[in-house]
Specification:
- 37% of the residues lie in helices and 26% in strands.
- By secondary structure, it is an alpha/beta fold.
- The protein has a domain of 163 residues: P-loop containing nucleotide triphosphate hydrolases (Rossmann fold, 3-Layer(aba) Sandwich), CATH 3.40.50.300.
- The strands form 2 sheets. It has a 6-stranded mixed β-sheet, with helices on both faces. The protein has a 4-stranded antiparallel β-sheet with strand order 2-1-4-5, covered by helices on one side.
- The longest helix has 16 residues.
- The radius of gyration is 17 Å and the shape is globular.
């Protein structure tokens, strides 16, 4: 895996971020960076704040305080669709494709910010990464398998050629063979220089594809390091990788 953290420019910067759901303090002053071309993973138990971090970046959940910047531009004052236009693509947990639209129509919906003259080229480029979707272009999204729907959700985001891809639990609910396919795609995207912030329940797989990782516990970052160092940490191996 190439080391893109060295001499890299920080693309996404989060500083002292606090996010609430009503009176529940979900994120308690977290700070993190994602450099250009990196895969950075967020690891933690359910309820640790991983998905909330992604939702805060997209402003689906509005942070109460702190800063989020992309290339120095503040995101927390923008509407979600303007954040997308700036190059932040959020692939949420649960896929959320349009089941009554065809695969092609789903991809076209994803291209809503692109000039019409460029849509076909973007779709073709994306289908090169997802040949299985090319075979199903006229098929309704809701008739795809779970793995194919996850591929479609990621492909729909990639049509935008985003500056950063936020992936939330891409392996959730998938059979092991399909999980392997999804992570092969993440590796390919990484090799092609796509910047990814990855939330993933399978910590072992996440650390295998990531350059760096942050461990969240009840809304706070308790550990951060290279993916290799985290994989070799006795605490991480015991608590998050299930090793004794």
């Amino acid at each position: 895996m190439p080391d893109r953290s060295r001499n890299a420019m920080s693309l996404l910067h989060i500083e002292n971020l606090h996010t609430y759901y009503g009176h529940i303090h979900a994120l308690k002053g977290i700070s993190l960076d994602v450099n250009e071309g990196e895969v950075v993973t967020l690891i933690g138990a359910n309820g640790a704040g991983k998905s909330t971090t992604l939702r805060s970046i997209s402003n689906i959940v509005k942070p109460r305080s702190g800063t989020i910047t992309l290339d120095g531009k503040p995101l927390q004052t923008m509407l979600p669709h303007d954040i997308t236009r700036l190059g932040v693509c959020h692939v949420p947990e649960g896929r959320h494709i349009f089941p009554l639209l065809t695969v092609r129509e789903n991809l076209e919906v994803g291209a809503f910010t692109i000039p019409q003259s460029d849509v076909e080229r973007r779709i073709e480029k994306t289908l090169h990464i997802f040949p299985r979707l090319r075979e199903r272009l006229t098929q309704m999204g809701g008739t795809l398998s779970g793995g194919e729907q996850q591929m479609l959700a990621i492909a729909r985001g990639l049509v935008l050629q985003p500056r950063i891809l936020l992936l939330d639990e891409p392996s959730m609910g998938l059979a092991p063979v399909l999980v392997d396919s999804i992570f092969d795609i993440i590796r390919e995207l990484h090799a092609n220089g796509t910047t990814i912030l990855l939330v993933e329940q399978n910590a072992r797989l996440a650390l295998q594809v990531a350059d760096r990782g942050y461990i969240l516990q009840t809304g706070s970052i308790v550990l951060q390091d290279s993916a290799k160092a985290l994989s070799e940490s006795e605490t991480v191996r015991k608590v998050y990788l299930g090793e004794m």
